[in-house]
Sequence to fold (145 residues):
Amino acid sequence: MFQIKTITPEETTHLRQLTLRQHQEEKDLIYPGDHDEETMHYGAFEDSELVGIASIYKVKMKDVDEPESWRLRGMATTENVRGKGYGKDLMNKCLGHIKSKNGKLFWCNARITAEGFYEKFGMKRKGEVFHPEDLGPHVVMWMEM
Ligand SMILES: CC(C)(COP(=O)(O)OP(=O)(O)OC[C@H]1O[C@@H](n2cnc3c(N)ncnc32)[C@H](O)[C@@H]1OP(=O)(O)O)[C@@H](O)C(=O)NCCC(=O)NCCS
Fold:
């Protein structure tokens, strides 16, 4: 059985480490804002196993003064379930929540390798490629809601 549920920041760290930041330790993978009141963390479960994560934060994008802006972070599914639509379901859950809060802008720092995934939701590139330490090339992706 597949299900998406809200989870705690602490429940995200195992998959963050496994799928996004193997060079770091789980204990260091609580991100700033993870415990903020507006922040939401979603987990995709196949039976009782956590196989996907996504977190959204109410935070502005650089150079855009839109208070109703939301950032996506820590979006990932485990390698064995990729291509089954779980990433899409997690994204749609995030977008649904943001819409329910009258969010106006949605953005993320995307790995270049995931750019095509975000494009499927109507997000577009903003600015130049940048290179955060140890994480590979990234680009800002965004869309109006
Ligand atoms: C990117 C990621 C989250 C996608 O998750 P997923 O569970 O495989 O996604 P889905 O199966 O729901 O795919 C949804 C659609 O996006 C497409 N897609 C998935 N990954 C893609 C990628 N990397 N590039 C282009 N398209 C992609 C799928 O083909 C599918 O297309 P369709 O709806 O036309 O069939 C997953 O590959 C992942 O965790 N990658 C490693 C971590 C990562 O890079 N996360 C993003 C950080 S910015």
